[in-house]
Amino acid sequence: MRKNSVKNTRINSEVLKELSRIISREIKDPRISPMTTVVSVEVAPDLKTCKAYISVLGDEEAQKDTLAGLKSAHGYIKRELAHSVNLRNTPDIRFILDQSIEYGVNMSRKIDEITADLHKGEEGA
């Protein structure tokens, strides 16, 4: 199975949906931030491994705590994923912090500040 095949894309989307559900509704670990989002999932073609890119809205401490909580709940998450997604092999999940949403929010804030400064400069002239 190729990496970008239809089957692999379908598996990625199903695992993404189930991981999002498990992390937001099933896990009761207080270290995991309620503002945790599964951004994307890459399941290897042999279904042995999975990279789950997560985004945590909050400071650096909240991000570290969330990653620690997810790593400690790894066995539970894998078991729940095995029950909900019918695959030959349940992939071993590796959580990777994705900072793209936070980066986008910061860039948007900077753009807003620059446009506000430009409007103030036009009004003063």
Description of the molecule:
The chain has helices at 6-26, 60-72, 74-84, 100-124; strands spanning 36-43, 49-56, 92-97. It is of the alpha+beta class and 125 residues long. It has a single domain (6-99), classed as K homology (KH) domain (GMP Synthetase, Chain A, domain 3), CATH 3.30.300.20. The chain has a three-stranded mixed β-sheet, with helices on both faces. A hairpin with a 5-residue loop joins strand 1 (36-43) and strand 2. Helix 1 (6-26) packs across helix 3. It is elongated. The mean pLDDT is 90.
Q: What's this model, at a glance?
A:
56% of the residues lie in helices and 18% in strands. It has helices at residues 6-26, 60-72, 74-84, 100-124, and strands spanning 36-43, 49-56, 92-97.
Write the layout of secondary structure elements.
Blueprint (H helix, E strand, L loop, with lengths): L5 H21 L9 E8 L5 E8 L3 H13 L1 H11 L7 E6 L2 H25 L1
Parallel strand pairs: 2-3
Antiparallel strand pairs: 1-2
Helix pairs in contact: 1-3
* Whole-number count of domains: 1
Q: Helical amount among residues, as a percent range?
A: 55-70%
Number of DSSP-assigned strands: 3
Q: Which term fits the overall shape?
A: elongated
Strand share of the residues?
15-25%
Order of helices and strands: HEEHHEH
CATH architecture: 2-Layer Sandwich
Report the biggest beta sheet as strand number plus sense, adding barrel if it closes. 3 strands, mixed
Distance between the termini: 64 Å
Instruction: Find the CATH topology.
Output: GMP Synthetase, Chain A, domain 3
Helix-strand category: alpha+beta
Rg, Å, rounded: 19 Å
CATH superfamily caption:
K homology (KH) domain
CATH class term: Alpha Beta
- Rounded average pLDDT: 90
**Unreliable sequence segments:** none
Trace the largest sheet across and list its strands: 1-2-3
What's the number of helices?
A: 4
